[in-house]
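Q: What would this chain look like folded?
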Amino acid sequence: MATAVLVLLTAGLLSAGCAGGKPRALPPADEQILLSKGDPRLLAAVRDGGDEPFAALAVFRGDAFLRHSAMLERASIPILNEFGKSALLLLRPAQVVPLLSGPDVRRMAWFGPRGRLARLDPSLELDAMARFAAGTEGVDREILLRWRDVPGESDERSVAGAGYRIVTRAGANVVVSGPLSGLPKLLEIDRIIYLEKASNH
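A: My prediction, written as structure tokens:
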């Protein structure tokens, strides 16, 4: 309970300091927390400040829903989805460091604006959470990308930039292989209308 109260108080202070949305220098202790338990995109989001929410994958110590949902609710952090020890959270930049500072969260990764999640098949989202909790998000798996139309060379370069290689093509449907840690980069490609598991997985 004391940890939850401290999280709320600290988050409130940080929100007040970031209300203008201007990039800011972080205290060394905050940077260390973000570098040790977060990722570079999460660090960038906190530095940028502002109040725009984004989705982040978090791995908790114990079941995310059974053990931590009450704490998250008190901190005004919605759970978008959960699977075992992992959860997809909707966070504002000011809430990240307070959440990571407590003992409940083992690690966290930026996932992207909430609106992009509509293009992600639910079963692939659950797979990403399970692998993130297990620490195997860097292992390659095949994903089916459905494009608005037949992708061109620039689209293929975007896929390669996200860390994926093309396996098969069938018109506007392309199967790629790569780590699930690259999903946020794939979701940034607006010409992809849907991402799902490949049929053989």
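The helical segments are 2-17, 28-37, 40-48, 64-74, 93-101, 122-134, 153-161, 183-187.
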